[in-house]
């Protein structure tokens, strides 16, 4: 089976499993797991922040950060296709009591002018604007890398109006590898940042929140409140350490495979795709009107041992990762050609 549904489907390599089995552990609730502590120190240094904390998922990472940065009744500016707005089960409202102000960006990218226009005036009728959340790379934007210059301009607006900024950097390291811009050059403009270990990096579980020492202390409290206290979590942290040491630079292979896939898909009749928009490891394409639905195409691909998810009709999303080779991408293209040849209504 060629699984292009997501980079979350990766499985630990034998070498990663060995590192996990041999991990030194302790009770992390007491702060005594040396492997967790080492991972947190590594991530803080990688991202240029004072401290970091290990969480169970990207959603927990985002939601604990939002809770630590806001007060109930605040408003948080987000892009309308962002993960925080669409895929965290209403967590911002349920866990932090904040309302989200979704703005429509271009492939997930908001401009400084849009942010400025969304800031509430100082009037007791309104929820005070407290936080701006950006996503880099942007999932629903097809792995779009957020322009660094725009981030700088948004930070200037945030500083002018006393706002904080949070980066959902679940796939930030994809942006780092593709742009060759070091992680701290991106993260310096944010009060908080998360990265995911269980996507392209290939760990089985876990995400990290990074920021200042006092902020991470607050996140630690909310991680416990939300049921995220670890015990002997060094077994999982060891996978994260292995991933950071061995799987960052190889993300470039995923990007090359995504471009190969995009070029091939663009040549198939019935598929609408702009290959130049594929910047990292996510390929979003549409099924042309007059063909079977994206759901039906997905079902037929599955019968040919290729997994690609339909998203909102008529679009589909394919994601390359460390368990998908160049040969797998060529094989997936072969099956897609066969499916589309018989998919016209």
Largest sheet: 7 strands, mixed
Helical stretch count? 14
Q: Mean pLDDT, nearest integer? A: 97
By CATH's scheme, which homologous superfamily of the largest domain applies?
A: Type I PLP-dependent aspartate aminotransferase-like (Major domain)
| Strand ordering within the main sheet | 2-8-7-6-5-3-4
Looking at the chains present, what oligomeric state does this protein adopt?
Answer: single chain
* Amino-to-carboxy terminus distance: 27 Å
Category from helices, strands and their pairing: alpha/beta
Secondary-structure element string: EHHEHEHHEHEHEHHEEHHHEEHEEEH
User: How many domains comprise the coordinates?
Assistant: 2
Q: How would the global form be characterised?
A: globular
Portion in beta strands: 15-25%
CATH topology of the largest domain, by name, is Aspartate Aminotransferase, domain 2
CATH top level label of the largest domain: Alpha Beta
How many distinct beta strands? 13
Radius of gyration: 21 Å
What is the helix content? 40-55%
Q: Report the CATH architecture of the largest domain.
A: 3-Layer(aba) Sandwich
Uncertain spans, ≥5 residues at pLDDT below 50? none
What tags apply to this protein structure?
14 helices, 345 residues, alpha/beta, 16% strand, single chain, seven-stranded mixed β-sheet, Aspartate Aminotransferase, domain 1, Aspartate Aminotransferase, domain 2, 2 domains
